[in-house]
Amino acid sequence: MIIKKLIGTKAFYRTVLAIAVPIIVQNGITNFVNLLDNVMVGRLGTEQLSGVGIANQLIFVFTLCLFGGLAGAGIFTAQFFGKGDNEGLRYSIRFKLYTALVILAVGGVILIPFGENLITLFLTEGDTTGDVALTLFFGREYLKIALVSLIPMSLSMVYASTLREGGRTVPPMVASIAAVATNALFNWLLIFGVGPFPALGVVGAAWGTVIARVLELLMLVIWSHVSIKKSPYFKGLYRSPHIPLALCKQIFVKSLPLMVNELFWSSGMTILNQCYSTRGLVAVAAVNIAVTVSNVFNIVYMSMGSAVAIIVGNQLGAGQIEEAKDTDRKIIAFSCVLCTVIGGLMAAMAPLFTVFYNVTQDVKDLATVMIIVYAVMMPFSSFAHNCYFTLRSGGKTLITFLFDSAYVWAVSVPTGLILSRFTDLPIIPLFTICVALELGKCVIGLLMLRSGKWAKKLV
User: Fold this and answer.
1) Is 328 helix (H, G, I), strand (E, B) or coil?
2) Collapsing DSSP states into helix, strand and coil, what is residue 359?
3) Dmax over Cα atoms in the chain, in whole Å?
4) Count of C-beta atoms within a 10 Å radius of residue 3
5) Cα–Cα distance for residue pair 327/6, rounded to 1 Å
6) 126's torsion region: left (phi>0), alpha (psi -120 to 50) or beta?
7) For residue 249, how many other CB atoms are within 10 A of its CB?
8) Alpha helices by DSSP H, 147-280
9) What is the DSSP letter of 412?
10) CA 252 to chain centre
11) Per-domain residue ranges for the chain?
């Protein structure tokens, strides 16, 4: 009986895959090209790889803050779409645009003057495994250029998230494919200096990212405003800056906990990486490789989380509460089964990924073990991730904050700080313990889902 509740019909899986597959393809290509970029930078040496990895940790915090800021409005976008309210959709898109501009301004104020100081927090003086000053130089040079890419990236996220929430997952996928292909091409040309292009090293990698982000934004904007019949909610978007005050307050109340959540969660993850960095540049480089590789495989449960947000959000907006609960349960089960298989493949292939990096054998050995740790935890990470999106789809944003970032700061961060500062625990057991703390979130998530209180219609 329980198993039957977890298994859907063929029509159900066709619906889920119709939403998830384009997102999987988009994220898969993006993360695969990120892996190629990581390998290209890794061919330059350990210091270059570590410097770029640290700089990207700072950008990671910005990106997730933006994601959280847009996510609150995204709840309303999905439910307005389910209701068929185009005017409501336009209001939620405008809220996203204002949010993106505010987060961009705050990010610039922090990262432009203080970026170098933040990078130094990840560097351990007296490290015998690499040149700390050189790592700082490469990180600083990369960050200066990469910050430019945050402008088109922020606007692209507004358009792409809106299209997905409206069921249009293919245009963002196509734009992303074009962008990552462009990124890979210009990284190759500008990192190594192919043909008439200069060899710019890590600076070339940053410029490749800028060019790709601009192309992605142009494609999304053109498609959205030309294909008005397919996305009528973009028509008249910029004719007025108006958002009804009551709706603005409602979206803000739902958005703020999500944005704060992503800020705290991403900064918590960054602090954990800083804890790992106390074990030297060899740990910084290994974590960079392991995270990049695992992201390629994590796309399945990440995309299933998006499917939960879209499909369950649409059903809640249409008032189909019991259908939403049933759909959510089956998507989560499907995601966990897939991730068990994919995690096994990832673990088996772990030693192959480090072959292409021009780093020391110590870095390769550490990265291999870390990849296996991520692989073992993948089904549990899938469950926790989908619990987060389930709670979010029903507007339980304060609960998602407690579930996600509060857990990280109450459990994961203190554990990492204590083990890294007050013990001589080697990097592998330190890393494994911190990653395995995800199991606690799974227990909490299961209890929240079983209560059913998350399933609410908001619009």
Assistant:
1) helix
2) coil
3) 66
4) 7
5) 9
6) left
7) 11
8) 150-165, 170-192, 202-226, 245-277
9) I
10) 22
11) 2-451
Measured between alpha carbons, how far is 139 from 122 in angstroms, rounded to an integer? 11
Task: Look up residue 38 and give its amino acid.
Answer: N
pLDDT tens track, the chain, 459 positions:
566 676 767 877 887 788 778 777 767 766 676 677 777 888 888 788 888 888 888 888 888 888 888 887 887 887 788 778 888 888 888 999 999 999 999 999 999 999 899 888 888 754 555 678 888 899 999 999 999 999 999 999 999 988 888 878 788 888 988 988 898 899 999 999 998 999 999 999 999 999 999 999 999 999 989 888 888 888 888 888 888 888 888 888 877 777 787 788 888 888 998 899 888 888 888 998 898 889 888 888 888 887 777 777 777 777 777 777 888 888 888 889 989 999 999 999 999 988 888 888 898 999 999 999 999 999 999 999 888 888 777 767 677 778 888 899 999 999 999 999 999 999 999 999 999 999 998 998 888 877 777 766 655
Sequence-separated (6 or more) residues with CB below 8 Å from residue 134: 47, 51
